[in-house]
Amino acid sequence: MKCLVLVEHEGGHLKDATLSAVTAASKLGEVHLLVAGQGVGAVANAAAKIAGVGKVHVADDAAYGHALAENVAPLAASLMAHHDAFVVPSTTTGKNVAPRVAALLDVMQISDILSVEGEDTFTRPIYAGNAIATVKSSDSKKVITVRGTAFEKAAAEGGSGTVEAVSAAGDQGLSSFVGAEIAASERPELTSAKIIVSAAVGASRAAVDAGYAPNDYQVGQTGKIVAPEVYIAIGISGAIQHLAGMKDSKLIVAINKDEDAPIFQVADLGLVGDLFKLVPELTEKL
Amino acid sequence: MKLLVPVKRVIDYNVKPRVKADGTGVDLANVKMSMNPFDEIAVEEAIRLKEKGVATEIVAVSIGPAKAQETLRTALAMGADRAILVTTDDAVEPLAVAKILAAIAKEEEPGMVILGKQAIDDDSNQTGQMLAALLGWAQGTFASKVEVDGEAVNVTREVDGGLETLRLKLPAIVTTDLRLNEPRYASLPNIMKAKSKPLAQKTPADYGVDTAPRLQTLSVREPSKREAGVKVNSVDELIDHLRTVGVIG
What we know:
Chain A is an alpha/beta fold. Chain A has eight helices and 17 strands.
């Protein structure tokens, strides 16, 4: 099976979400990549070095500068004439583009896969991760989005893919980029952080709604899915939507004054008590 | 302009879903059902656009069992003007839903279709994007702000790194994210009034759409549980444990 993986990139850098999607695709067959963007030569060269990658198709054109779904989808759909599966990271960019490609190909997308069970069989979370469905696709071509935390990252070095330019499909004239407010931060992006400290004043839905934290720090069913080495939940009760976003973390530490809080059902280490006393004590002793 | 607002009847967001013992799905017998929360936000946004004088008519659509009529009545009570119910007892996948909605959009010719970014049952996050593809329209997904400006609409989107604003040619598809607005509750007089608002009954066959599923669900199981953890009694004990597992030096 020939897979086409959509490369996620930003500011001339390849993003880690791509590497997890490459691993998922490699379980299906040959891995080829699509880099769409403007001035993406460096990204294409980096992509060719990912272990196990074959061809890297590069569409370098102003029409792809901001990953507009209206422009990227027809390009991907035309390349799918020579591929059997379109494999896309479950990022906001991937989730925006993939279903548009699926509809152009008349294919029912398989969203957010957790595992590859066979060439047409996958597992995926439903009901905010409260259930895991095993689904089998009858479509001859597959369109798949990949939950990054469920697959190891492919090695970023060691591959020797060949870079091949593809002609742009042009600007569809439907949409244009106006502007962005991207949080400039020294902190790593949440989904690639090794340790995440999540406090009630930091990341629950109510806190975000009350304006306490920027939305890109939010964890849960409809926000970020994270699986860091250590996840420290401070004063977080653990609503099911929040648990859906972090329960695959390697080690979960919870501090909460309510000993019946649902967070303790998933925590490896729990400490019951007042966070306003315990957290200063903890930071002091560390 | 006319607005089309598709809504889905799903398990209520406060209910903890239970997997059936035979592994065929999630048990929905005697479970409270409600409008998908993201669709509620879509209905609210449509009403606000009508209140601002941007929209003239709001048509709510639902595809599902006869009981989805209740979901449409909720939309009508909130402020939609009329409703279309496409009745089917089969589970209809996003691709087929998008095809039915595309057929309805061709008949109704709305200026925008506003719908939830995902349904909280199957968590697919596909229908809006698929509908945009089938109609050849622009799409503004995961919207936190919608501003109609002449022949275009500016949509601010919640993306991984923060926010992004796109300008879309109308007609367009908008899918809603949680921060777009806070939906209103329907007042009692409006709930009464909604009962006499027009509701057209259709079937998928009326739109020539084959709803046969492309994905077969082989089994549904509970997620693997994390093993029971340890409760510690003090900060010192917590630090000891963290040292033992090598998290801190």
